[in-house]
Specification:
Length: about 120
Amino acid sequence: MRLDVRFIKFLMVGALNTLFGLGIYALLIRAGVPIWGALIGGNVAGIVFNFFTTGHLIFSTVAVSRAPRFVVAYLACYAINYLALAGFAWLHLGPIESQVVLTPFMAVVSYVLMSRYVFRSDQP
């Protein structure tokens, strides 16, 4: 089975996006922004940054018309991740261990949504 090069790039760009969002969060915390505000700021900045890096570096398109689908895909990933974490909690697994177990699955889910729903080549 051949591993999709685009998926490898997706994982690498995902690491960059994570560092960016975390960096914004840390800067906001250092600037005295309350945790809830820093979390919102880091996430919003991360989503915008991720849209452009994922679109450009992986799928070669950053058409703003795709942004609503990108947000929907993010919300879907959040919901799937949250529900899965709740299931793991029901099995008495801790939240950190559960997220570690879920991370590879969520990377695949995110990639499928991005490649087949947000950035597929047959849409504007």
